[in-house]
């Protein structure tokens, strides 16, 4: 078989959809030759795995992220670890890896999620909309003044970073630090080169934790109405421990930023590449929510997740043995013609069966409603400003990551 695919390889990042098609048709349960990872490409198999958290453990996600460090820690890594422990006030004799919703299984996952759900109730999310519109108006003012406008840097990054930082009670002058930490963690843990060893992840994590430490401890004593207070206020029956709070903050910083940023970026790219669809949305702005869902199906911001089997598993397409590392190709599942008619066509009027782009089951994305609202507010403002052209499709540089997908920059020139 000439088919060759490695989920962590950069070879197919520019356009992974042709190889996804080959996998679905010829090898729906494909074992990659280098890493030995079992890759699931069909919607039925991916959905099955997501619905079976006991058989498909999230420990596989932790294993994949840890493997990015690659080599054994060197002297510079050990020095970075020492700086991290000093900055974060970590005692190496009693500390452990912070629990994380992405890498934990039930029942611990469910216990943590029940607490953090308090900060993501429909009421809390909907209450953020007026502030989101203020932020977007401030971002779009740059476009209205003329000159080049970077959809990513000037809008798609600024909106979620500002919202999350304000949710956490972070000072405005530290918002850019939040984005810098997020970029460093994503690149170091899921990038194609993953150079820099452990220190490339540890150093930004240490800065983040060192900065957040005083906020977390202050909110335990003097709670306010921010998200940290919701998680640690002793008036609540259950609260997160300090390590759990740091794990959640890191997850929110990375996943919360990247999901929305890439949703906006990928939506913009899709509309520019399909001027007829852009015209439909410009004529009928009520199509924006449907267009966003179509983007998540057609070019999902999170391309894959990892799991590890805890038993022999019989999938719709075949068997996987116990102890296997498994890649769930969400990007491929969204283009499966067995589920979606004309699956490779981007259609802003489509009413598809619910996609898997935000996950499924117990690990359904906690921030999906936040990302959807941010995307809606941003695209309602941006779509009228997009040029309807029939030129060649833009091919911007993409984020360096095997997990998340989106443009690094997407510059619009001034309207003529």
CATH homologous superfamily caption: Cytochrome P450
Number of helices: 17
> What value does the average pLDDT take?
86
Structural class: alpha+beta
Oligomer: single chain
Fold blueprint:
Blueprint: H1 17-26, E1 29-31, E2 38-40, H2 43-50, E3 56-57, H3 59-67, H4 75-88, H5 108-116, H6 122-127, H7 129-144, E4 149-150, H8 151-156, H9 158-168, H10 175-190, H11 199-221, H12 227-232, H13 242-273, H14 275-283, H15 288-298, E5 304-309, E6 313-315, E7 318-320, E8 325-329, H16 330-333, H17 368-382, E9 411-412
Parallel strand pairs: 2-8
Antiparallel strand pairs: 1-2, 3-5, 4-9, 5-8, 6-7
Helix pairs in contact: 4-11, 7-9, 7-17, 9-13, 10-11, 10-13, 11-13, 13-15, 13-17, 15-17
């Amino acid at each position: 078989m000439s088919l060759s695919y490695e989920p962590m390889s950069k070879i197919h990042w520019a356009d992974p959809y042709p190889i996804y098609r080959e996998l679905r048709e010829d090898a729906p349960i494909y074992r990659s030759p280098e890493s030995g990872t079992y890759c699931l490409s069909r919607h039925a198999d991916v959905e099955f795995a997501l619905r079976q958290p006991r058989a498909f453990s999230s420990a596989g996600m932790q294993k994949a992220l840890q493997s990015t460090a690659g080599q054994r820690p060197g002297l510079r890594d050990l020095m970075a670890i020492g700086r991290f422990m000093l900055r974060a006030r970590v005692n190496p004799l009693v500390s452990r890896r912070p629990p994380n919703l992405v890498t934990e299984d039930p029942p611990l996952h469910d216990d943590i999620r029940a607490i953090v759900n308090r900060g993501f109730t429909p009421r809390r999310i909907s209450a953020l909309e007026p502030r989101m519109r203020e932020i977007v108006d401030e971002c779009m003012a740059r476009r209205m003044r003329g000159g080049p406008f970077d959809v990513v840097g000037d809008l798609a990054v600024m909106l979620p970073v500002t919202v999350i930082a304000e949710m956490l009670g972070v000072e405005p002058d530290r918002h850019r630090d939040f984005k810098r930490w997020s970029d460093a963690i994503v690149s170091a843990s899921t990038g194609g080169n993953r150079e820099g060893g452990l220190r490339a992840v540890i150093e930004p994590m240490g800065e983040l934790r060192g900065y957040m430490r005083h906020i977390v401890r202050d909110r335990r004593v003097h709670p306010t109405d921010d998200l940290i207070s919701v998680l640690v206020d002793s008036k609540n029956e259950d609260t997160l421990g300090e390590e759990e709070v740091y794990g959640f903050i890191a997850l929110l910083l990375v996943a919360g930023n990247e999901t929305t940023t890439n949703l906006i970026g990928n939506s913009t790219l899709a509309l520019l590449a399909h001027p007829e669809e852009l015209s439909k949305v410009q004529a009928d702005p009520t199509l924006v929510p449907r267009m966003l869902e179509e983007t998540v199906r057609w070019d999902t911001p999170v391309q894959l997740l990892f799991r590890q089997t805890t038993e022999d598993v019989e999938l719709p397409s075949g068997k996987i043995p116990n102890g296997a590392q498994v890649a769930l190709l969400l990007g491929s599942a969204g283009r499966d013609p067995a589920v979606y008619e004309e699956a490779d066509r981007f259609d802003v009027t489509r009413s598809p069966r619910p996609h898997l782009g935000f996950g499924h089951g117990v690990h359904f994305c906690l921030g999906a409603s936040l990302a959807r609202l941010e995307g809606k507010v941003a695209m309602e403002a941006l779509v009228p400003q997009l040029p309807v052209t029939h030129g060649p499709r833009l091919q911007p540089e993409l984020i360096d990551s095997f997990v998340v997908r989106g443009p690094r920059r997407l510059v619009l020139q001034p309207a003529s």
